[in-house]
Design brief:
Blueprint (H helix, E strand, L loop, with lengths): L7 H9 L5 H11 L5 H10 L7 H65 L5 H15 L2 H24 L11 H27 L5 H13 L6 H38 L5 E2 L5 E6 L10 E10 L4 E4 H4 L3 E4 L5 H8 L6 E6 L20 E11 L3
């Protein structure tokens, strides 16, 4: 075993390190680093606390951060406003596109209409109608001309009649009983003439009111417009026409009455009274009617064809009088009822208005239909 000198390794190391002994170099490094190992020295260098900050530096940094935050917010707000403006621009663009499309459609419609007007000839019908209307208004239609001629003729007749009547056309002074009575007699005579004229009208015989009045005036004045033979001939022909019309009406009414009576007899509840009339009780009523009672009735009078002559029910009229005061026909009908009863009567012409009728509504030979209702009964006195 060889012996080695204990310092040989240290010497060798010193030689390698620049000729200084190891222990001395190690102490020198430690002395230069302040006695801190290198590894610890590097860690302390990087992890050492920052130097203290002054208040001015802290305020400056705080202001800097605030400025940076305001700048960031301003930038964000600017982006939002730009996005909003962009949306508004897009909406305006869309609206303009819609308007442009509508304008294009209108232009197309106008072009089509212009082409149609160019191809088709103009419709002059309204202009022609307007021209014809103006012509009629200026010259008058045939109907209007006839009316004007008729009006002129009536005016001439009126003027002629006025000249013939003379003082009668002036207002009368009815300041005495005799004058009033004379005037009343004339009114009654005029009403009779009108009634006769209406009756003959129903028979199919027409007369002109103006000509009838002229005949009356001439009869009073004695100045006739026809000779006596002509008057007699005209009157004979007129009476013949009236008699023929009356006979036709009488025959027609007789046939209608017989047909209606035959059908009524077959109805349920139809009964013939002792006097010969036929009736049917619609409602018997309740409570007896004394012979001396005051009876209130409502009556509807019609022809066999349904023509209404009088309708007290519709007009709200009533007739109230002692039972004995009623005509035999209605007294018999009331005797078949009780208070508030109702009855339908079919009365032949011989028990009603006969062959004369009742001008102007009831023709000669008419069978009459009556619906009688007892509205109330009260004791006399």
């Amino acid at each position: 075993m060889k012996w080695r000198h204990p310092l040989s390794a240290a010497v060798l190391l010193a030689l390698l390190c620049g000729g200084q002994p190891y222990a001395q170099g190690q102490e020198t490094a430690a002395t230069q680093s302040g006695g801190i190992p290198a590894l610890l020295q590097f860690a302390e260098r990087y992890q050492a606390a920052p130097p203290p900050v002054s208040p001015q530096q802290r305020a400056s940094e705080k202001k800097k951060k605030a400025d940076e935050e305001l700048a960031r917010q301003a930038q964000a707000l600017s982006v939002k406003q730009q996005q909003q403006r962009l949306q508004e621009k897009e909406a305006q663009s869309q609206q303009q596109q819609t308007q442009l499309s509508q304008l294009r459609q209108q232009v197309a419609t106008l072009q089509a209409e212009q082409q149609r007007v160019t191809q088709a000839p103009p419709d002059l019908t309204p202009l022609l109608q307007l021209t014809q209307g103006l012509s009629r208004a200026w010259h008058g239609t045939p109907t209007e001309l006839q009316f004007q001629q008729r009006q002129q003729g009536l005016q001439q007749q009126y003027d002629t009649l006025l000249a013939r009547v003379g003082p009668l056309a002036q207002p009368l002074e009815l300041n005495s009983p005799q004058a009033s009575q004379s005037y009343a007699a004339g009114v009654a005579l005029g009403k009779d003439i009108l009634l006769l004229q209406a009756e003959r009208q129903n028979w199919g015989v027409s007369t002109d009111k103006t000509q009838v009045l002229a005949g009356v005036v001439d009869a009073f004045s004695g100045d006739y417009q026809l000779s006596q033979p002509a008057l007699e001939q005209a009157l004979q022909v007129s009476e013949q026409k009236v008699n023929q019309a009356r006979q036709r009406t009488l025959k027609t009414q007789t046939q209608r009455g017989q047909q209606f009576m035959a059908a009524f007899r077959q109805q349920k509840g139809a009964v013939q009274a002792e006097s010969g009339l036929w009736y049917r009780i619609e409602a018997a009523g309740s409570g007896p009617i004394a012979p001396d009672a005051i009876v209130t009735v409502v009556v509807k009078e019609t022809l066999t064809d349904g023509t209404v002559i009088q309708d007290m029910e519709a007009s709200g009229a009533q007739l109230s009088q002692p039972l004995a005061a009623y005509p035999p026909l209605f007294r018999e009908a009331i005797g078949l009822l009780k208070n508030h009863g109702a009855i339908m009567l079919v009365v032949p012409p011989e028990m009603a208005y006969g062959d004369k009728g009742y001008a102007p509504k009831v023709p000669p030979g008419a069978t009459m239909i009556y619906t009688l209702r007892v509205a109330d009964v009260r004791a006399a006195g």
